[in-house]
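I am still getting used to backbone structure tokens and would like to learn alongside you. Label the sequence line and the structure token line clearly, so we can match residues to local backbone shapes. Would you write everything just below, so we can both look at the same thing?
***
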Amino acid sequence: MKILSYKPREEKYGFILFSAKFGDRWDSIKEEDHIFIYSSDFEHITESVKSIYPFADPETKEIQEFFDACGMNCIPAVEWSKILIDLYKKEYKDIYLQRFIENFCNWIMDKKSDSDEIMIWGTL
């Protein structure tokens, strides 16, 4: 699992992100494709993620009411497009923060091109 960070830390908690196709078995999702983001770094992304809620899960049609920082959040690829637009339109005065956001967005764009959803698993 790769760590994607804005500022290196010794934190124990954060968020694991990985992509999947609808109907994938959990044991078929490769750990080397996961990224981990420390919770303090994820704070720069949280507002954009929360902005898509509520939304209807395209597979189950269930309404996802809120972002769960302590659990699994299955976010469809179409919703990630909205998150990316929101992240790209923000101005970042800190060049390292801008690079972190760009790296995050590039990872998402790469994964969403061949997945149905990208999960965020909060380890808080």
Summary: The mean pLDDT is 90. The chain has three helices and seven strands. The first strand starts at residue 2 and ends at 3. The chain has one domain: 2-122.
